[in-house]
Amino acid sequence: MSALQVDGLTKSYGEKKALDNFSMQISEGEIVGLVGRNGAGKTTLLNCIAGNIFPDAGSIFFDKYNLLKESEIRKDFGILIQPSFLDYMNTYDNLRLLQNAVGIWDEKIIRKQSDEVLKMVGLENKGKTYVRSFSFGMKQRLGFAQALLNGHKFMILDEPFVGLDINGREMVKEHIRKIVKEKQIGVIFSDHNLDEVRSLCERVIVIKDGQKVYDKGLEEESLYEIIVQNISKEFVEAISKIPGIEIDRDKNSLSFKGSERINQVLVESMAYTRITSIKVSENNLEKLLKGDTE
């Protein structure tokens, strides 16, 4: 059963359509990347799902619940969209307000849950620190902590990696994977960087001028072809350990999809032979992100 179902969503600002008859579905246990240029409609879509914006037309269902009429269901959604905090309060107090809003008043439970999510995002020593002293990256981590606090059924993350260093990005990815595996929740997150999307999900949706123009799995990756000087029996044995590699001994070629294999293939190839050429064929997804829709 689909965890989230969006049908015919339309939203206009004056004469500009931010969303134009947009539809999608996200299943339980699925992480979906939402990609598009600035102004494509990513944040408007996420804000509609999160309840921050009401669409002009269309429907949004979470399982059997109509989110446009039964907004209380979102109390179990983890949401990271332009996180806001009360700067004159410390970290614990900001998280306490969020927990109070969903009916949690027991101080022991509040502190336990707060400590857990702060440790997850690397802010375990910042519980009593006033948020006004936080850097942008620290506020982004705190925003993700808020999402983790309430993300029991679904997560909506708008550019969760912005402002984070490489360790912070890996931390966020690790916890998204963990919560999805443990709770089988659905996740939609937006990002400009296709490499970040590839590293976290197996399906991507591209939005352009408010319309969905691509919705497929990342198995439709670029095709790599490596031509080598010769392919020995030992080389075949070594390269065959890498999944998804097609070997053509007549052409002395190795073919495979997906950039995640390239480094391992190059290492094995250079250990046994000489590489004479590397060819890369772009896929439709990469063409779309460059504005080439042919």
Question: Could you walk me through the main structural features you see in this protein, from its secondary elements to its overall organization?
Answer:
The chain has helices at residues 42-50, 91-101, 107-120, 136-150, 166-183, 194-200, 233-239, 262-272, 284-289, and strands spanning 2-13, 16-27, 31-35, 57-62, 65-66, 77-80, 154-158, 186-190, 203-208, 211-217, 223-228, 246-248, 253-257, 275-281. The chain has 294 residues and is of the alpha/beta class. The protein folds into two domains: 2-217, 3-Layer(aba) Sandwich (Rossmann fold), CATH 3.40.50.300; 223-289, Alpha-Beta Plaits (2-Layer Sandwich). A hairpin with a 2-residue loop joins strand 9 (203-208) and strand 10. Helix 2 packs parallel to helix 4 (136-150), helix 3 crosses helix 4 (136-150) and helix 7 (233-239) packs antiparallel against helix 8 (262-272). The longest helix is centred in the middle third of the chain and has 18 residues, at 166-183. The two termini are 34 Å apart.
